[in-house]
Amino acid sequence: MHPHSPFCGASAQGGPTMTQVFISYKREDQSLTLALAHDLEAVGFTVWWDTRMLTGDSIDQVIMDAIDTAQAAIVIWTPNSVGSNWVKSEARRANRQGKLLPVRVPELDESDIPPPFDNYHTALISNRENIKAALAERDILPRQSNTAFPVSPVRKEPPLPTRLPYEPIMVPLKPGVFLMGSPEDELRRYRVNADRKKWETPQRPIKITRPFAIGRDPITFSPITFSEWNIAVAHRACYKPSNCGWEGGGRPVINVSWDDAQAYVNWLRGKTSRPYRLPTEAEWEYACRAGKTEPFYFGHFIDLEYANFRGKWLYDHPPPKRKDKTVEVQECRENAFGLRGMHGNVWEWVEDPWHDSYDRAPTTQDAWTKDSTDDPDLRVIRGGSWKTVAKHVRSATRGKCPKSTRADNIGFRVALDL
Question: Is 0.70 surpassed by the pTM of this model?
Fold first, then answer.
C-alpha cells in the first residue's frame, strides 16, 4: 500500500465493481469511515470502502477506477485528511466528474477545508439523514435492505383512543423483532469496568408480540405551566418535586423515584380507565432503537446537536460545549418512531427489577420479574442523562438505582397497552 494512501476501499473481489458510493478518507480516520460505510450499507447502499485488494493490484489504478465507476464519492474532511495530497487528489477527480459529496467532522471548521473545496457546502458526518438526502438528490437510492433483524412498528397504527387533555402524547408501535443488548465489539462499550460489560449481554432477539404505545417524551414538569406532572399534583395524586430552579415549561420531571412514577401511573390509569403503566425494559429498548442496530438511533456516533449528555467526549471526539442541566423535550432529536429524548437528558425508570446480565432473561416484551440476583429494591434505569458521557447514553446502556431514589437526572415516560 502506498505510504500516504488514504486507506480507501476496494471490493471483496479485489478490483472495483459498479458501486453507488466511494468513500475517500485518511488512514487515521478508519473508525469514522467504517461506521459511515456500515450505516449506508445497512439501509441498502453499495459502498466501496474495504481494503481487500488482490496481490499485484496497482493501488493507484484500483482507487481511480473505483472513483470512475461509483455514482458518488464521499470525501471525509478531518484534521488528518485536510493535509493529505491523496485525499485532495481523489476529491479533485471526483469533482471533475460531478460526483463529489464532501462531509466533515464537527471539530473541523469549513474554513479549514483546503481550496477549492472550501467553497462547497459540507455536511456533518454525524448527520446521516443529510448524507442520504444528498444521495437521493442525485437519484442514488438504496438497492436493498441489509438489516439483520427487521422491525415492523408503524406510527399511528394501531389507532390510539381519543386523547384527553391531561394525557401525555403517546406513539403507538406494532409488534416486531429486534436485537436487545450490545455486541462484544461495540465501540467504547464499558472498556474499563469488566463487571459492567456483562450488563448488556448476552445479546439476543426479542419478540414484541403485543402492540403498545409509549410516550413521545418523558413526563414533563414546570413551575409555571400545567404539564402532565403538574396536573397530577393538582389532583393531590403526586408530590411536587424540585425543578432545581431550571426554568422552562417542557423539561422532563426530575427528582422522582420509581415509586413516585408508579403513583403517577396509578393516578393516570384511574383517571382515564386506560391501562397505563411503566414500559418494560425490552419495550424501552425496542422503542429507543427504532429499527437500528447501531449504538445510537442516529447511527454509530452522537453529538450535542442530537441529544443532551455530558459533553466530555462525543464518543470519539471532544465536543464544543455542554449544557449541565436538563433541556426542554422539544430540543431533543426524535428517532424513526417519532420519540424524543431517548438518548440522554434524563435516565428513565422502567418496570423491571435489576438483573446484572441477560442470562436466562425472557425473549418477550414482558418485564423480567423473576430470578433477580441482586438487591430486590433495585430497579432498572435506561437512556443516560445530562450528567453521563456519550458511551453511557447508548441504546443498550443499562443503569440501576434503589427504587426510592430521587435525583436531578432521573425521570420516566409511560406506556399504554393497546
Answer: no
